[in-house]
Amino acid sequence: MVSFEQNFYPKIGKVGKGFLRKIFEALKEEKDSKKVGYYELPKNGIKTIKELETYQRENTYFKNGSIKNIVVVGIGGSSLGTKAVYEFLRYKRKSKRQLYFLENVDPIIIGETLKRIDKKNTHFLIISKSGTTIETTSIFKYIISKYCFDLSQKKDANRFTFITDKNSSLSKLADEYSIKQFNIPKNVGGRFSVLSAVGIVPLSLVGIEVKELLIAAEGFIDSFFEFKEKKILKKAYFYSKLAKKYPINVLFSYSSLFSYFNQWYVQLWGESLGKWDKLGNNVGLTPVHLVGSVDQHSFLQLILQGPKDKTVTVIKVKDFKKRAKIPDIKLKYLEKTDYVNNHSFNELLNEECNATYETILENNIPADMIVLDKISEQNIGILIAYYELLTSCVGQMLMVNVYNQPAVELGKKKLVKKFTNIN
Amino acid sequence: MVSFEQNFYPKIGKVGKGFLRKIFEALKEEKDSKKVGYYELPKNGIKTIKELETYQRENTYFKNGSIKNIVVVGIGGSSLGTKAVYEFLRYKRKSKRQLYFLENVDPIIIGETLKRIDKKNTHFLIISKSGTTIETTSIFKYIISKYCFDLSQKKDANRFTFITDKNSSLSKLADEYSIKQFNIPKNVGGRFSVLSAVGIVPLSLVGIEVKELLIAAEGFIDSFFEFKEKKILKKAYFYSKLAKKYPINVLFSYSSLFSYFNQWYVQLWGESLGKWDKLGNNVGLTPVHLVGSVDQHSFLQLILQGPKDKTVTVIKVKDFKKRAKIPDIKLKYLEKTDYVNNHSFNELLNEECNATYETILENNIPADMIVLDKISEQNIGILIAYYELLTSCVGQMLMVNVYNQPAVELGKKKLVKKFTNIN
Predict the structure, then answer these.
(1) Which residues, in sequence order, are bridge partners of residue B98?
(2) Does the beta-carbon distance from A91 to B103 stay under 8 Å?
(3) B364 touches chain A (CB under 8 A)
(4) What mean pLDDT value characterizes chain B?
(5) pTM of whole model > 0.90?
(6) Distance, CA of A174 to CA of B331 (rounded, Å)
């Protein structure tokens, strides 16, 4: 269960209500016309899970139980969502399979990661929506060469699964060598693709209960389209209306398990909203991600006494289902710290969260809180759906195209030119 | 060697030059009067290294070579700097000792980390400037209880080293049980303490060549106080003068090795500058940290087409001294990606960096580049000194007290109250 405590949206009059309805209808139209596909992903995901199960029964290495490592080769939208869910649920899964990520073309990190795996017990997922992401294809080629793979040999082709758009270059390569592929729907952008095969395949392969996650996400999206999640529209309204006053949106998550969820949020928020609007203005909102209580000792001072240009959303987990306590040890000279003795770390973390939240509110900084009753597949599913819908709503209100990233292409073109000049 | 390419500071007239000189003198006065102590840390660090060597010869466990794990228990300024340096240099050290961090009071993470260590081969560093940081003391108590340590026994007291202010509660506890302690100078704040025992002790214990780092940092600080690093003053002038126009400062580091350096920067920048100025205004600059090339696929779109409220500093490493290449494999349908074949990952990463930097400049976003010739102790030492000095200069110009964090206390007081009400 996830509950949303919102304090900061302004009164919405009749005109405002009409506006929210219009935005809601716009999203509905995106969905009904199939212009935007992420709304349908959770529903269709069950098929992907089944397809993956069939595949595992057919692939020699999965069949004989030799696969101990899954390596995701993918960057940005092809890895962030998977990392977010994995980091959140990792500790409670039953599988012992390791999940590795190769994303950056950092020579040190690539070497370090590959040193840890043995090709004999490893399956590689090559993930690229376009099929030609330069980081991903470069690392893919490096893997082929390092492990002397010959894709025309069934035994080597079986070491790979591709996840990409239908008919992309990578998809055609898969066809050429009969490599298993899963496709990303054309109407789903990379940063909205975690609930497609992009997330489902790696997460399922390392023992995350993806089905539960999908069902919860689907339920939440359905509820939104039944006009029952008006809080999202209201929150989006606040962000959009006051985008100039509060250009920075802090996500302050109280648990290290959210480290990558935070980063997923940064991509979703930053890349979806930061662009020219229909009038040619530079618009957008800047995401900042923090982990509590750690970042109380880092960024909180700035929030409280720095410029009042930030909103804050705090995420709290009510019950971690871990009972570890601060023991009732009274150390000489440290008596001042004894007030937490006999309380659980869970309590300490949550009371720090509450104290921070209240302090932020008292300093007149717009803040809301999202409370998860526990760490669960359902809850992360809801959180993902919530943030995706919120992003779409804000984007509609800011009059930007939420789903493209035109500026990223600029750098890519320049890169090609640089190498063409060198060669 | 570190070189600094600055493009964005405005012309500085006669009045401006006088102002910069005044700021320089103010820093010099901080140093000479010993009001601010971090300027002297590198020079004094050599003594700490020697003291640590002596200690290792005396402590039973170090003497008999049984210590395989070092656990840092500390949060914020007590861990971030160490993490930054460790992550940067880790892969090139010779020691096989593992370094663990316990900072967050997250019940899942504490459990996971402690599961991996064995008390028989572990030494614990309890680090807290004030001596009563609640996260640190709580985890410390948990460790005592979990491993059944009795501090009054020499054999158990020897498992610990404390790093804290002289005469703090923790320091007195150390005296009580003859636990080894290193002290942080009173005039050095937590986020400026990485070159004190706070960083020197854990880093030396896991085989980082700290001496080289300190000498380079000292050289850079000396050079600054010889008025030879005017670029720092000029850059600070730009940031301060245009703080309202460019309230967000992005650090875009091209290598995953900078992940924690980036976070160290966030604390230093955010917590030092975000506060009420002498006139009672809310001032400050918001730090954002990115890793390239990964975050080209996440945040870059926002930088390029979002609101023009950001400056960007790009960090590049010229030569990683790793020759791994993208092999010359031509895959059918992927011909488009062959332009990088036969080039090293080092080249690819750097050309991505260059392409991004140029794109940013072409979009009229103030940007500069810092180039490290390689990954080395010297270079990270210079980077640390550079950012600390820059922070002090900006703080002087914004008329804030760079070295305190008054707002953080608000939440702390509230926390104590919460528990007092429960108990």
Answers:
(1) B69
(2) no
(3) no
(4) 96
(5) yes
(6) 11
Of the options 3.30.420.40, 3.40.50.10490, 3.30.70.2750, 2.102.10.10, the CATH number for the domain spanning B38-208: 3.40.50.10490
The CA distance from B136 to B125, in Å, is 10
Residue-range domain boundaries for chain B: 2-32+213-406, 38-208
Tens-place pLDDT, residues A38-73: 999 999 999 999 999 999 999 999 999 999 999 999
- Return left, alpha or beta for B65; rule: phi > 0 is left, psi -120 to 50 is alpha, else beta: left
In sequence order, what DSSP letters do the residues of A335-356 get, joined into one string?
GGGGGGTTSBHHHHHHHHHHHH
Residues in chain A: 423
B215 phi, psi to nearest 5 deg: -60, -40
Q: State the Cα–Cα distance between residues A235 and B82, nearest whole angstrom.
A: 39
Collect all residues of chain A within an 8 Å Cβ-Cβ radius of residue B405: 301
- The reply to whether residue A303 touches residue B107, judged by beta carbons under 8 angstroms, is no
Partners of residue B326 on adjacent β-strands: none
For residue A273, which residues of chain B lie inside 8 Å, CB to CB?
302, 306
Q: Does A337 touch chain B (CB under 8 A)?
A: yes
pLDDT more than 90, % of chain A: 94
Q: Looking at chain B, which residue has its C-alpha nearest residue A76? A: B297
> What token pair was written down for A302?
């700035």
Q: Going by C-beta distance under 8 Å and a sequence separation of 6 or more, which residues neighbour residue B131?
A: A333, A334, B164, B165, B168, B169, B170, B171, B173
CA dist B144 and A421 (Å) reads 62
Least Cα separation, residue B150 to chain A (angstroms): 11
Domains B2-32+213-406 and B38-208 are alike in CATH topology: yes
A350-365: average pLDDT = 96
Portion 187-216 of B in contact with A at CB < 8 A:
190-191
d(CA B323, CA B343) in angstroms, rounded, equals 9
Residue among A83, A297, A315 at smallest CA distance from A208? A83
* B2-32+213-406 under CATH 1.20.1290.10, yes or no: no
